[in-house]
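Below is a filled-in request sheet from our internal design queue. Each sheet records the structural input a requester submitted and the sequence that came back. We keep these sheets so that new team members can see what a complete request looks like end to end.

REQUESTER: design group, bay 2
PRIORITY: normal
MODE: inverse folding
CHAIN LENGTH: 325
BACKBONE (tokenized):
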């Protein structure tokens, strides 16, 4: 089968199509014939040599995919060959076939095209798990950075469906309009003083929950923007790993910082997160509160272009690799 790997770290040109043996499902596992594979920021970091797969997993890129159940391993229940599914992965999604524990498979969201759904589960699971972790509630002020990206596109809709007032940052008028179309109440240009803007727009209250993909660069600003008893959830480090923070400000506001990744979690945790994501988000898709993300479809064999697009100025939503013959 064809797989996509980056034997030598580098730019998009490092991506190579590599032939590999089709995997065989072990006990409790499912073999999935892949229809589409979501392209995520973690894939870009792995290609650059900064985010290797967890020990014991293959070097094949890809954190999520959609497809059709092909075969079951010994003792596997809950799935049958021929069923459509989404699968959450630690590695292996850029391939024609992949195996995963049965608990990491979920049905496609109601009414969603299987190709578009190939770039949906990873962001949905990330947002749901982390917002559960910081107890996001109706009536709160919610801020997500990078609102036009995959995480932001889902988080805006999810928080809005929960009954929050949604703030987001992005870097162009076009992207701010896109965030507004998703339901963001207050899209903010990150080139301007977005901290002051949140204080003014909330009448001095501040942000109750922030979902942050930036990391160190925004650490002080994020805490400054928080309300009393506010919570900061860090899920990315696009702005660096190390920052300084006035702990007195954290103490005085009774704030908390939550940080978590999804990729390296044990299988049983991922299964629980997948089940919770279906429980929380799939009804929102069914009733139209959450719409399919804006997806750019790229043929599997043109994966280098997909990785060029994810860093392009006009990129919105998600990019999905569509399996070609």
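RETURNED SEQUENCE:
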């Amino acid at each position: 089968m064809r797989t996509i790997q980056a034997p030598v770290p580098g730019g998009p040109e490092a991506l190579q199509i590599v032939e590999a043996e089709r995997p065989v499902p072990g006990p409790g596992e499912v073999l999935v014939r892949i229809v589409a594979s979501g392209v995520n920021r973690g894939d870009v970091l792995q290609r650059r040599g900064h985010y290797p797969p967890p020990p014991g997993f293959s070097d094949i890129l890809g954190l999520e995919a959609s497809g059709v159940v092909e075969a079951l391993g010994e003792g596997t229940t809950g799935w049958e060959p021929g069923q459509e599914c989404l699968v959450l992965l630690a590695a292996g999604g850029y391939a024609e076939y992949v195996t995963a524990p049965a608990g990491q498979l979920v049905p496609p969201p109601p009414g969603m095209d299987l190709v578009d759904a190939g770039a949906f589960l990873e962001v949905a699971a990330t947002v749901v798990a982390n917002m559960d972790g910081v107890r996001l509630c109706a009536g709160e002020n919610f801020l997500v950075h990078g609102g036009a990206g995959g995480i932001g596109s889902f988080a805006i809709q999810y928080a809005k469906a929960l009954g929050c007032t949604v703030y987001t940052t992005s870097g162009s008028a076009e992207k701010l309009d896109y965030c507004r179309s998703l339901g963001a109440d207050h899209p903010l240009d990150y080139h301007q003083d977005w901290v002051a803007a949140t204080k003014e727009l909330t009448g001095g209250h501040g942000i109750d929950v922030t979902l942050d993909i930036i990391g160190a660069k925004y650490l002080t600003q994020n805490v400054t923007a928080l309300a009393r008893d506010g919570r900061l959830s860090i899920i990315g480090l696009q702005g660096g790993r190390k920052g300084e923070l006035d702990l007195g400000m954290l103490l005085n506001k009774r704030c908390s910082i939550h940080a978590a990744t999804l990729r390296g979690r044990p299988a049983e945790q991922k299964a629980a997160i997948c089940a919770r994501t279906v429980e929380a988000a799939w009804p929102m898709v069914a009733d139209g509160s959450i719409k399919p993300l804006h997806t750019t479809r790229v043929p599997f064999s043109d994966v280098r272009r997909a990785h060029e697009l994810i860093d392009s100025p006009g990129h919105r939503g998600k990019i999905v690799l569509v399996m070609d013959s």
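SHEET NOTES:
- The first strand starts at residue 2 and ends at 5.
- The radius of gyration is 19 Å.
FILED BY: M.R.
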